[in-house]
Specification:
Layout lengths: L2 H5 L9 E5 L2 E7 L3 E6 L2 H10 L6 H10 L3 E6 L2 E7 L6 H6 L5 E2 L1 H22 L1
Parallel strand pairs: 3-4
Antiparallel strand pairs: 1-2, 2-3, 4-5, 5-6
Length: 128
C-alpha cells in the first residue's frame, strides 16, 4: 500500500466551525468530501489572501486535499471564487494569476463584488 492509499478517502463533517485569520472570521461547513469556507466580504477575502506567507506551499495543501479526496470551496458572499483539492481544475486563468493548483472562478469573484456593491448602495439608500 502506498502513502496515498493510506490516507484516501477522508470525510469531514462540521456545521459550526469558525476559523479566524488576521481578525477575519471564516465559517466552515462540509458535506463529507467538500469543505465550504465562507468569507463575508471581498475585502476580507483579499485581507486573508494577503496575509498568507509568500512562500506558502499551496501545492502541498492542494496535494493533501487531493490525496485525501477532499475539495475546499472558497466562497465570498455566497459565490464560489476558488476550488482547491480533488475537484479543482485549474485553467488558463489560474495559471495566469499564478494560483494553480487552485481553480479560480472569475464569475464568482465578479458576482461577489457586484453583490458587495449592491449591499453598500442599499445601505446608503436606507441611511439617507
Amino acid at each position: 500500500m502506498n502513502e496515498t492509499d493510506a490516507r484516501a478517502p477522508l470525510s469531514v463533517t462540521t456545521e459550526d466551525l469558525t476559523l479566524t485569520v488576521e481578525g477575519v472570521d471564516l465559517d466552515v461547513r462540509s458535506t463529507g468530501d467538500r469543505l465550504f469556507v465562507e468569507v463575508q466580504t471581498v475585502r476580507d477575502a483579499i485581507r486573508v489572501a494577503r496575509s498568507l506567507p509568500d512562500d506558502a506551499d499551496a501545492g502541498g495543501f492542494a496535494a493533501l486535499l487531493t490525496g485525501t479526496d477532499l475539495t475546499a470551496e472558497i466562497r465570498v458572499r455566497g459565490r464560489t471564487v476558488a476550488l482547491v483539492g480533488a475537484d479543482a481544475r485549474p485553467g488558463a486563468v489560474s495559471r495566469e494569476l499564478g494560483t494553480a493548483p487552485a481553480e479560480v472562478r472569475l464569475a464568482g469573484g465578479f458576482g461577489a463584488a457586484v453583490s458587495g456593491l449592491s449591499a453598500v448602495v442599499s445601505a446608503l439608500r436606507r441611511r439617507f
